[in-house]
Write a structure and sequence with these properties.
- The complex is a heterotrimer of chains A (about 325), B (about 350) and C (about 325).
- Chain A has about 325 residues and is mainly α.
- Chain A has helices at about 20-30, 30-50, 50-55, 85-120, 125-140, 140-150, 155-185, 185-195, 200-235, 245-255, 265-290; strands at about 5, 295-300, 305.
- Chain B has about 350 residues and is an alpha/beta fold.
- Chain B is built from 12 helices and 11 strands.
- The radius of gyration of chain B is 21 Å and the shape is globular.
- Chain C has about 325 residues and is of the alpha/beta class.
- Helices cover about 30% and strands about 25% of the residues of chain C.
- An 8-stranded mixed β-sheet of chain C has the order 6-7-8-3-9-10-12-11, sandwiched between helices. Chain C has a 4-stranded antiparallel β-sheet with strand order 2-1-4-5, covered by helices on one side.
- The longest helix of chain C is centred in the middle third of the chain and has 18 residues, at about 185-200.
- The radius of gyration of chain C is 21 Å and the shape is globular.
- Classes of the chains: A mainly alpha (about 325), B alpha/beta (about 350), C alpha/beta (about 325).
- The interface of B and C includes residues 216, 219, 236 and 285 of B.
- β3 of chain A pairs parallel with β4 (about 65-70) of chain C.
Chain lengths: ~325, ~350, ~325
């Protein structure tokens, strides 16, 4: 038999309500995985964002021989065109991140809307939207992306759209579940009884409750979007005029970096992609754990409590 | 409670001439039962449960009517149907003489401000992210009332003061979790009062509160009633109904089985179900111990409504005729008040 | 005089997640005789459930306990879990708050009772199933229902089954925490009647933990009223209703609506004090209608004011002085 009891916190100081930002910040500070994820992610984002100013060399400047080995001037060596790898990685991460964020935005808009509408209205609307979601869910993303990217032709915009319209399914499901539970809260029913319209209820009462989950989901989706972009670029379906991390790897591969023994042209971009995905996953996972409704109950546990030794008149009895 | 209030407690079911504030006439509410996969595949007909099956009552201005019964008797569904939060299958709900059963949702919206509801769970009925001020102001924003921002602030302050959260300034910027259950319920009442409704539906307003603060919330409702508010209180607690209601309607399996002035229902019950229900209410005074008349048999189940009188399988005094005859709400022989009605052929 | 179950100066502290401690139970001394029915009454957060869990040795890791719990004169708290375990469910057993919803939904009710019997080596196999049937019959459930699943039971039936489970090892004390709270009045009456019969037929001592005064008034011999972690008054239910010696008891009765009679109940203004900080003087003083100077800084102690009747209120000293 499992019993939960309420902690007798009733007559204690109420916990101050925390703003959403406060919760995010708290999670990042307190959970090691979130701290690590956030640190790595922000380092990469800062490096990529500041590429035009802090990159050591020009992106198109040949500064040494093709596949020049790492040296003091070029810690990660040079690529097939003699371009500094550090510079290349900073610019490549820039494109990867832009695609990742943009595709995530698209998928959040689609997934969030479908999730909220399906969860809030329920019934037939829910049934139809969830069937559609299921169809999208069973489509293998990467092959479809390849097909679509091949048909539409490679451009950054197309890549963003293709990734965006395939990644929203899990968001829609998660948000729908949360909205369904929020919809049943008494204060939402009360707002309906008061005569509030659907838009108002969703905007004022439902969205604020699911927003934290949406944020956690966004971070997780970025990881997938970055991965998908890398895969497409590696397969040569990326925008040829833009150098993303996948493109960097593809280039090195095409120009036989491996047979040239130039590991530095392939391993660092690979590691950077892996770090990017890992950091997003760590952070997103930690946020999701922290933001999901927490249960403030303790399970009845034998041998849990401590005994304070008796003092005074009872001391001899111990 | 003043004796004259008790005396005039049972206003006529339809007060002469003037329309009652709320009149419910032969209300029927049905819920579909899930057929399950097998049912859907075999195309079994969709079944319905009659949660409310022909309920009629009225609430006047300045009157508190208590709808009493066990869980599953349809009292909460009745309340929701009155507010059109669930749709009735048939019957009429008239508010201030106007039939609202057929109104579209849009046409209903302006009327909603006149009929407010407060829920049982004060811990869930306020948005945890809204301060008291926001929560009390929201209804005005929804209905575009209250004029300027300044005027609204003034009204919020007034409403918070009216529910006796004093000093009001101290409460305005607080969040629900910083308030006790009783205080939250008062905030919910304040958020209803800013719209100056004529009717308040209170669904078990105090059952989740501590005993020591229940009376405070109920006494507040009583004062609002004296100021002219009509209140429909849903409760399972007969003691509370006995103390605060003008009239009590006892429900069993979707029907009202007995209705009348509160004092008469408590002191002179005529329906065997009411008698049993009253006998099991624990009394405060240990010297009032009586052997309760505990009903046996299955708890009422709206999916299996017995033939004849729906109470007969559990009725201690049922006779053969009860199996076949579905009794109407009539004035019992031993009734004192002219407004006393019971649905029992023996009464 | 040695009671069946006795607590001496029982205290419980909880560590709070954000630091600090909460003094939930502040020195409770209670006695329960064989076959006696004692009601432990108080509002939410007053420490009544914590007291019950402390008696069972079922407090979470954030709890610290001190004092003595004497079962037949032997302190079973002194060795913590070591000394509590042999008595739990065997001598002392409990029907938890919401226990009716705590059955495993995928196992039959009977098998869950069999499990308890086997766990405590009371019976096994066929014997255990027979005993389960007897237990269910004792709480008014036809024994052919043992093979049913919890969702096939109504709330009242599940609560009966929870009581049967608590009775599995023939305990001498049954602690029932809000046993009827989520139930309808009719079912509540059935459960109360059952508890009454069990006490009469098996000589079971009952500790009924509840916020509901009328239930205690109807079912119990004696009652103990808790407020803010302390015992403020105890005595026979009759004296507590007709001659309370603590204002809280009097006001609590006055706040409880009754079926008959006149007038509206009166609420007690204010709220209980917080227990995560030190409180000076009488904890009830801010809400008391008869507080005076002495209540501000002197904490009243629980004193015997009449035979079998104790109260913790300075007014009783004043009354005694006036009488002199």
């Amino acid at each position: 038999m499992s019993i939960v009891i309420n902690e007798p916190g009733l007559i204690a100081e109420p916990e101050p309500i925390r703003s959403r930002g406060g919760i995010l910040w708290d999670t990042i500070r307190r959970r090691p995985s979130a701290t690590i994820g956030a640190t790595i992610l922000s380092l990469i984002v800062v490096g990529a964002a500041l590429a035009p100013w802090i990159a050591p060399y020009d992106l198109h400047e040949q500064v040494g021989p093709p596949f020049g080995a790492p040296s003091w001037q070029h810690p990660l060596g040079l690529d097939d065109g003699g371009v500094d790898m550090v510079t290349l990685l900073m610019w490549g991460a820039r494109i990867s991140l832009v695609v990742g964020f943009a595709a995530t935005l698209v998928s959040m808009l689609i997934g969030g809307t479908i999730g909220v509408v399906a969860g809030y209205f329920g019934g037939k609307v829910d049934g139809i939207l969830m069937r559609i979601t299921d169809y999208f869910l069973v489509i293998p993303d990467v092959p479809l992306m390849i097909v679509v990217a091949a048909i539409w032709g490679p451009s950054l915009f197309h890549i963003v759209i293709v990734i965006g319209i395939l990644l929203w399914t899990s968001t829609a499901r998660v948000i729908r579940a949360q909205v369904k539970s929020v919809r049943e809260r008494v204060y939402v029913k009360r707002a309906r009884a008061l005569g509030a319209g659907h838009v108002r209820i969703v905007m004022r009462h439902v969205l604020p409750q699911v927003a934290p989950l949406l944020i956690a989901n966004t971070v997780l989706t970025i990881a997938v979007a970055v991965f998908d972009e890398t895969a497409l670029a590696f397969l040569g379906l990326g925008d040829p005029s833009r150098i993303s991390l996948g493109k960097v790897i593809e280039n090195a591969f095409q120009r036989a970096a491996i047979s040239a023994g130039a590991w530095w042209a392939i391993v660092p971009p690979g590691v950077l992609v892996a770090l990017l995905i890992l950091s997003c996953s760590l952070l997103g996972q930690a946020l999701e754990d922290a933001l999901n409704p927490r249960l403030r109950v303790a399970h009845v546990s034998a041998r849990g409590f401590r005994l304070r030794p008796l003092v005074g008149r009872n001391a001899d009895a111990v | 409670m003043s004796p004259e209030r008790r005396g005039c407690g049972g206003r006529a079911l339809s007060s002469n001439g003037a329309d009652p504030l709320l009149a419910v006439d032969d209300l029927v509410v049905a819920y579909p039962i899930a057929r399950g996969l097998a049912g859907a595949v075999l195309r079994r007909p969709e079944q319905r449960v009659l949660a409310v099956d022909g309920v009629s009552f009225s609430v006047d201005r300045g009157e508190l009517v208590a709808l009493v019964g066990e869980s599953g008797c349809g009292k909460t569904t009745t309340a929701q149907a009155v507010l059109r939060l669930v749709e009735a299958m048939s019957g009429r709900v008239s508010f201030d003489g106007r039939d609202i059963t057929e109104l579209s949702n849009r046409a209903l919206r302006p009327l909603r401000r006149n009929m407010q509801i407060i829920y049982q769970d004060p811990y869930e009925s306020l948005d945890p992210r809204m301060t008291v001020r926001d929560a009390v102001e929201e209804p005005m924003l929804i209905h575009g009332l209250g004029g300027s921002r300044e005027a609204r602030r003034e009204l919020v302050l007034e409403a918070v003061a009216r529910v006796e959260l004093t000093p009001p300034d101290l409460f305005l910027e607080r969040y629900p979790h910083e308030l006790s259950g009783g205080q939250r319920q008062r905030v919910a009442i304040a958020a209803s009062l800013v719209l100056e409704p004529d009717l308040l539906v209170a669904d078990e307003p105090v059952s989740m509160l501590d005993v020591s603060v229940r009376a405070g919330v109920l006494n507040l409702l009583d004062r609002l009633r004296q100021d002219g508010l009509g209140i429909l209180m849903i409760t399972h607690d007969l003691s509370t109904a006995a103390r605060y209601a003008d009239r009590i309607a006892v429900m069993y399996l979707g029907r009202i089985v007995e209705v009348g002035p509160a004092s008469e229902i408590v002191e002179n019950p005529q329906h065997p179900y009411t008698k049993a229900l009253l006998s099991v209410v624990p009394r405060r005074d240990p010297r009032d111990r009586k052997r309760p008349q505990v009903l046996t048999g299955e708890a009422p189940d709206a999916t299996r409504i017995p033939s004849g009188c729906r109470f007969h399988p559990r009725c201690p005094v049922a006779i053969e005729e009860c199996r076949a005859h579905d009794p109407e709400l009539l004035r019992p022989r031993n009734a004192v008040s002219p407004d006393h009605r019971a649905a029992c052929i023996l009464a | 005089m040695s009671a069946l179950l006795e607590t001496e100066d029982l205290q419980v502290w909880f560590d709070l997640p954000r630091g600090g401690t909460l003094h939930a139970v502040q020195g409770i001394s209670l006695g329960l005789e064989r076959g006696e029915r004692l009601g432990l009454v108080g509002e939410s957060g007053c420490g009544k459930t914590t007291t019950a869990l402390a008696l069972m040795g079922l407090l979470p890791a954030s709890a610290t306990v001190s004092g003595r719990v004497l079962l037949n004169g032997i302190d079973i708290l002194r060795g913590a879990e070591e000394t509590m375990r042999p008595h739990r469910w065997v001598d002392l057993s409990m029907v938890f708050q919401g226990a009716m919803n705590a059955f495993n939904p995928v196992k039959t009710v009977g098998s869950q009772i069999v499990e308890v019997l086997e766990l405590h080596h009371r019976a096994a196999g066929r014997a255990a199933r027979v005993r389960t049937g007897e237990l269910l019959a004792a709480v008014g459930i036809p024994d052919d229902r043992a093979g049913r699943y919890p969702h096939e039971f109504s709330g009242g039936m599940r609560q009966r089954a929870a009581i049967a489970m608590a009775l599995a090892c023939n305990p001498s004390v049954l602690i029932a925490d809000e046993p009827t709270t989520a139930l309808d009045v009719m079912v509540q009456a059935q459960i109360l009647e059952l508890l009454d019969a069990l006490c009469r037929d098996f000589g079971l001592a009952l500790l009924l933990v509840t916020h509901d005064l009328p239930i205690v008034a109807q079912l119990c011999d004696r009652a103990a009223v808790m407020y803010a972690g302390e015992l403020v008054e105890h005595g026979s239910v009759d004296t507590l209703f007709h001659a309370p010696r603590h204002p809280y008891t009097r006001l609590l009765f006055a706040a409880t609506p009754d079926l008959h009679g006149d007038g509206l109940p009166a609420s007690i203004p204010g709220a209980p004090p917080r227990l995560d900080r030190q409180n000076e003087g009488c904890p009830f003083r801010p809400r008391c209608d008869r507080a005076f100077a002495r209540c501000v800084d002197e904490r009243p102690l629980l004193r015997t004011v009449a035979p079998e009747h104790g109260a913790a209120c300075h007014l009783n000293d004043v009354a005694a002085e006036v009488a002199h």
